[in-house]
């Protein structure tokens, strides 16, 4: 019985650690945007070297899944690079 209680306590402690550190490890979408996107799309999302992300027509899909796909795979013929190798799916999701 004592072993069962110890295992349960260990499980609860592990779950608490996972929840605490898992929440702390969430990607910061705003910081990632500034790092990877702002140079072309502007710090305020209004555009610059690339189109505005606030006002304008979304030529390649406006839904989150389309935007995530475009970030991940890029739009080569327009000069948008792929971020597949430099950002995780969770980081891309955080930016969107």
UniProtKB/TrEMBL annotation:
Transmembrane segments: none annotated. Residues 24-96 form the Cytochrome c domain. One of its GO terms (molecular function) is electron transfer activity. It comes from the Bacteria. Keywords: Heme, Iron, Metal-binding, Signal. It holds the Pfam family Cytochrome_CBB3. Gene3D superfamilies: Cytochrome c-like domain (1.10.760.10). Residues 1-25 form the signal peptide. The keyword Iron applies. This is Cytochrome c. It comes from Mariniphaga anaerophila.
């Amino acid at each position: 019985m004592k072993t069962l209680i110890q295992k349960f306590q260990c499980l609860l402690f592990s779950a608490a650690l996972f929840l605490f550190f898992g929440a702390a490890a969430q990607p910061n979408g705003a910081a990632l945007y500034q790092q990877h996107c702002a140079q072309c799309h502007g710090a305020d999302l209004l555009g610059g070297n690339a189109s505005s992300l606030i006002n304008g027509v979304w030529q390649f899909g406006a839904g989150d899944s389309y935007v995530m796909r475009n970030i991940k795979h890029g739009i080569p013929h327009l000069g948008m690079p792929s971020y597949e190798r430099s950002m995780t799916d969770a980081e891309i999701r955080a930016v969107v």
